[in-house]
Amino acid sequence: MLVMSSVSRRNVLGAGAGAVAGLGLAAHMAALGRGTSSEAARPQSSGQSLSPFGAHQAGVDTPVAAAHELIAFTLHDDVDRAALGRMMRVCSTDIAALMQGRPAAGDTLPDMAQPNVSMSVLVGFGPGFFDVDGLRSELPAGMQEIPPMQHDALQPEWTGGDLLLWISADDFTSVTYAKRCLTRDVAPWASVRWAQQGFWRGTDAQGQPVTGRNLFGQIDGTANATGASFDGTLWSTDGWLAGGTQLVVRRIAMDLPEWDKLTRHQMEKVMGRRLDSGAPLSGGTESTPLDLMAVNPADGQPAIPLDAHARLAHPSENNGRRMHRRGINYSDHTGTGLIFNAFQANIAKQFIPVQRALDDADALNQWTTAVGSAVFAIPRGMVEGGWIGQELLA
Ligand code: HEM
Fold first, then answer.
1. Cβ–Cβ under 8 Å, residues 164 and 122
2. What's this model's pTM, rounded to 2 decimal places?
3. C-alpha 206 – ligand 1 centre gap (Å)
4. Which comes out higher in pLDDT, residue 50 or 9?
5. 162 to 54, 68, 76, 95, 141: CA distances (angstroms)
6. How many angstroms is it from 130 CA to the middle of ligand 1?
7. Is 80 a catalytic residue?
8. Is 16 in the pocket of ligand 1 (CB under 6 A)?
9. Per-residue pLDDT averaged across 52-70, rounded?
10. Would the CB of 252 count as within 6 Å of ligand 1?
11. What is the mean pLDDT of residues 219-224?
12. 323 CA to centre of ligand 1 in angstroms
């Protein structure tokens, strides 16, 4: 039985207005593979309980939580296919417990486990996972490292990874508890390669769901593939990965001191959208489609400049290619930026061509530099009594 014990209608609708547009709550919950609850009308923006079971893993198209840590692991050299199966069984049992507010098996600090903290633990398999004996032929089509881009300055400490755990919750205490338990679970088979904390504010001052802002102050996540679940954009139909997806993680440093030297008007032209409302410079509100043909009456120039990020990333400029973005902010001793995360059915066909187009001409490149990069296959969700990755490893 799929349970969402505490979820608000506002939360679900706030998952990304685009993704939910035109769907009633029940339809959207059905699309997520999760049940509705009698508490569905309770207005709150956090405090959810996401089911660890379902067609898809939580943490892809579920509402974006406030606190995040992505942890990538390197597999030990002696790990074989059977060991991967053991690792995923152990890990899956504890993921199910933690998401349901129960402690990990045998944990000495069970009081740390809390229900209704909107926890999800998204598991991904990097290219090195498929180097293990017998798995090479199972590498999903299109899943590949991102080729070098001219604006990259990749650092090894943020790049690669054989296994990903992306833990999300309402607060960092819950995230860090889950990290402690799950890192211990995988320790016999894998060691931490990198870990990145991120955060997101998906509510306004009244607690109402909003799209959220990155650290350039832009509303980010508006044009997130409406109906992506249904049109082959997001979910894979390929072999064992069917029902799963592919994830690109790019740690993108943002040069805030230089950005701050721009006027608001200049900032808006770089993006092609307004800073206050997120509306396209061609007019309307945040959710109005871009009018790429619109011109400014005053000077006859395109209302959305030819090198604006929103124009160059737009599906109509990219042969219809789309992706489902789930960026989170970071700010730490290394600097400030966006942990840009994009899900799609096929990285080679979706992310890479769009990234190349942006690398060539995007005005935003002047203030952004990718300093980390990783790719992961995201298995489908687990069934109750099953485990994540079973369809590949069993
Ligand atoms: C720090 C780097 C980046 C920042 C600050 C940024 C910011 C934004 C913002 C503010 C929007 C407009 C609002 C929205 O629709 O969400 C947007 C749209 C978009 N961005 Fe980015 N972005 C960054 C990097 C990237 C990268 C690396 C890609 C892919 C290679 C990308 C792909 C897209 C796409 C596909 C859209 C939606 C276009 C549409 O359908 O209208 N972005 N981005």
1. yes
2. 0.90
3. 26
4. 50
5. 24, 19, 10, 18, 17
6. 30
7. no
8. no
9. 96
10. yes
11. 93
12. 10
Any ligand 1 atom below 6 A from CB of 387: no
Both tokens of residue 173?
């205490």
Quickly state the pLDDT bin for 5 (edges 50, 70, 90): very low
Question: Do 255 and 386 contact (CB within 8 A), yes or no?
Answer: no
Residue whose tokens read 């943020």: 158
Please identify, by atom number, the ligand 1 atom nearest to the C-alpha of residue 278: 13
Burial class (CB in 10 A: 0-12, 13-18, 19+), 73: buried
Over residues 348-358, the pLDDT tens digits come to 999 999 999 99
Tokens of 88: 């995923």
Atom of ligand 1 nearest to the CA of 318: 35
Which member of 220, 276, 359, 360 is catalytic?
220
337-371 burial, b at 16+ Cβ within 10 Å, e below that, comes to bbbbbbbbbbbeebbbebbebbbeebbbbebbbbb
Which ligand 1 atom is at minimum distance from the Cα of 351?
30
Task: Name the closest-CA residue to atom 28, ligand 1.
Answer: 355
Structure-block tokens of residue 152: 């990259």
The structural domains of the chain, with segments of one domain joined by +, span 28-32+45-387
Residues 319 and 36: their CA atoms lie apart, in Å, by: 37
Q: Which of 328, 254, 250, 251 is nearest to 66 (CA)?
A: 328
User: Does the beta carbon of 312 sit less than 6 angstroms from any atom of ligand 1?
Assistant: no
Question: pLDDT per residue over 157-178, tens digit each?
Answer: 999 999 999 999 999 999 999 9
Contact 63, 21 (CB under 8 A): no
Asked if 84 contacts 388 with a C-beta cutoff of 8 angstroms, the reply is no
- For residue 215 the two structure tokens come to 């650290």
- 43 vs 110: CA distance, rounded Å: 29
Residue 148 DSSP symbol: P
Give the DSSP letter string of 302-366.
BSS-TT-HHHHTSGGGTTT---EE--EEEEETTEEEEEEEEEES-TTTTHHHHHHHHHHH-GGGG
Distance 182 CA to ligand 1 centre (A): 32
CB 351 within 8 A of CB 221: no
Q: How many Cβ atoms are within 10 Å of 189's Cβ, its own excluded?
A: 21
CA of 342 to the centre of ligand 1 (A): 10
